[in-house]
Amino acid sequence: MIAIGSDHGGYALKQEIMRHLSSRGLAYQDYGCYSEESCDYPVYGKAVAHAVADGTCEKGILICGTGIGISLAANKIHGIRCAVCSDCFSAEMSRRHNNANIIALGGRVVGPGLALMLVDLFLDTPFEGGRHQRRVSMIEE
């Protein structure tokens, strides 16, 4: 199960991503927001982060205007490694080397085509482990 959430700045892109997840046959849980009405991104960043941290969901996707604010909120939750990504290389490496468990996207930064590529890379790329596990463990401490 994938947790997904956004604020008003990411709402439209979240709708595109949910349709894409459905087309791939991937289960997801929408943690809000549910309209383009102005709202506070920390509420949704933390909701998705808690769902990933407690094991309810395996990975998460967050979207706000830039991806930055919502990622900061998510990263306050112990066990979360949320990476803001706006290019394919970063999305892939966030998984391979950092074992990121949430990707954050900017609804005002990346278009839908690129966003779907980033989501696919994030969801499909495995963590390499090895020397990278030592570093991830250092982050978790």
Topology, element by element:
Layout lengths: L1 E5 L4 H13 L4 E3 L10 H13 L5 E6 L3 H7 L7 E3 L3 H9 L5 E5 L5 H13 L6 H10 L1
Parallel strand pairs: 1-2, 1-3, 3-5, 4-5
Protein model, in words:
- Strands 2-1-3-5-4 form a 5-stranded parallel β-sheet, sandwiched between helices.
- It has a single domain (2-140), classed as Sugar-phosphate isomerase, RpiB/LacA/LacB (Ribose 5-phosphate Isomerase B, Chain: A, 3-Layer(aba) Sandwich).
- It contains 6 helices and 5 strands, in the order E-H-E-H-E-H-E-H-E-H-H.
- The radius of gyration is 14 Å and the shape is globular.
- It has helices at 11-23, 41-53, 68-74, 88-96, 112-124, 131-140; strands spanning 2-6, 28-30, 59-64, 82-84, 102-106.
- The protein is an alpha/beta fold and 141 residues long.
Number of domains: 1
Note the beta-strand portion. 15-25%
Number of strands: 5
Distance between the termini: 26 Å
* Overall radius of gyration: 14 Å
Described by its quaternary structure, the protein is single chain
* CATH architecture tag: 3-Layer(aba) Sandwich
Output the CATH class name.
Alpha Beta
Strand count, sense and barrel status of the largest sheet are: 5 strands, parallel
Q: What characteristic shape results from the CA principal axes?
A: globular
Helix content: 40-55%
Average pLDDT taken over every residue = 97
The computed structural class is alpha/beta
**CATH topology-level fold name:** Ribose 5-phosphate Isomerase B, Chain: A
How many individual helices?
6
- Poorly predicted sequence stretches spanning 5 or more consecutive residues: none
As laid out across the biggest beta sheet, the strand order is 2-1-3-5-4
The ordered string of helix (H) and strand (E) elements is EHEHEHEHEHH
